[in-house]
Specification:
It is a multi-pass membrane protein. Pathway: Cell wall biogenesis; peptidoglycan biosynthesis. This protein has 369 residues and is mostly helical. Helix content is 67%, strand content 4%. A three-stranded antiparallel beta sheet has the order 1-2-3. Helix 9 crosses helix 10. The protein starts with 10 loop residues before the first helix and ends in an 8-residue tail after the last helix. The relative contact order is 0.16.
């Protein structure tokens, strides 16, 4: 008997992701080599590490694209427990503190961020809860509390690092998934209101957050303090003009923007590749999100639809926050640009998540649209 031919995954998602990763590798090197040469005595320090994670991410993406996504549902509780343990370990003396933030755990010569793992573990668990609730009675309201309990637990542990933006993105992704699953807009707005109240409490506990919150409105009021990074980012974007200064010719990466390969890499793209380069990158993200939404709409079951929805929402939320911060459209907060910012395991996990989307796409009728 002839072996059944394996159905192909969505090539548009696959190649768009690879294009973004290649752009990321190039821009990480371009933005980091000056500071890497000075700080690490090795201009290729960040490039080499980023390429290692990109290769690992590629194999992870291929692996998750072939392994049945339904296995994630069975492994959900185990993954949740492992993630919880990692988040607790990172805030103990075993965690690694860099620049006042304790977000990493050392594994051999590499470091991992448990908060990046938590982003996608929460998506797996929330998808499982929504699927189980809808299978029982079709009432999504009953899923809201356990879903928010899981994401809220991850949020609380991540804020302790401290990392409010990553924790907040997990909550926002959960709300998007609940809304898509059928939760009424009134309930979603009520939850958002509760989130704003919680933010107020967190600001009261740590006043430095208030300074960050208001600095983006007029960063020039504190040009050497809270407004410094935003001002340098705006200088980079402004000097790039329409076509940019040229690849590798950024001026702001010469110690004006701290760690330009990370959260403010979009500013370096704007400076070197101009408005055209920025639009091109954003169009790639828009196309990727569009294709992922099509997969979610046509997914074969509730669980796979929620998985793809959550992954798509996480990518979209991070892109919006990162670009908004770089353009001084919202308060400064540290969150990487997916597939592009230097971020080690963040890149590999995002690529593995896209592999899950590709896996689901094998069960969806593809077309050329």
């Amino acid at each position: 008997m002839a072996k059944k031919k394996e159905k192909a995954f969505d090539p548009y998602i696959f190649y768009t992701t690879l294009t973004l990763v290649v752009i990321g590798v190039i821009m990480v090197f371009s933005s980091s080599f000056v500071q890497a040469k000075f700080k690490m005595q090795d201009p290729y320090f960040f490039l080499r590490r980023n390429m290692i994670w990109a290769v690992l991410g590629f194999f992870a993406m291929i692996f998750t694209s072939k392994v049945d996504y339904k296995r994630l549902e069975k492994l959900g509780n185990t993954l949740g427990l492992v993630t919880l343990i990692l988040l607790i370990i990172v805030i103990t003396p075993l965690g690694i503190n860099i620049n006042g933030a304790q977000r990493w755990i050392g594994v051999g010569g590499l470091t991992i961020m448990p908060s990046e793992v938590a982003k996608f573990t929460s998506i797996i668990l929330v998808s499982k809860i929504i699927k189980n609730k809808q299978d029982k009675n079709g009432n999504i309201v009953g899923a809201a509390i356990p879903c928010l309990l899981i994401s809220g637990t991850f949020f609380g542990l991540i804020v302790k690092q401290p990392d409010l933006s990553t924790g907040g993105s997990i909550i926002m992704t959960t709300l998007v998934m609940l809304f898509v699953a059928g939760l009424s807009m009134k309930v979603v707005f009520a939850m958002l209101g509760a989130g704003v109240g919680l933010l107020g409490v967190l600001i009261a506990i740590a006043p430095y957050r208030l300074k960050r919150l208001v600095s983006f409105i007029d960063p020039f009021k504190d040009p050497t303090g809270a407004g410094y990074q935003v001002i340098q980012s705006l200088y980079a974007l402004g000097s790039g003009g329409l076509f940019g200064l040229g690849l590798g010719r950024s001026r702001q990466k010469f110690f004006y923007i701290p760690e330009p390969q990370n959260d403010f890499i979009f500013a370096i793209i704007g400076e070197e590749m101009g408005y055209i380069g920025c639009i091109f990158v954003l169009l790639l993200f828009l196309f990727l999100i569009y294709r992922c939404i099509r997969i979610a709409i046509n997914a074969p079951d509730v669980y796979s639809a929620m998985l793809v929805t959550g992954i798509t929402a996480q990518i979209g939320i991070q892109v919006m926050i990162n670009v908004a911060v770089a353009t001084s459209s919202m308060p400064v907060t540290g969150i990487p640009l997916p597939f592009i910012s230097y971020g080690g395991n963040s890149l590999a996990i995002f690529m593995a998540a896209i592999g899950v989307v590709l896996n689901v796409s094998r069960h969806v009728k593809l077309d050329g649209s």
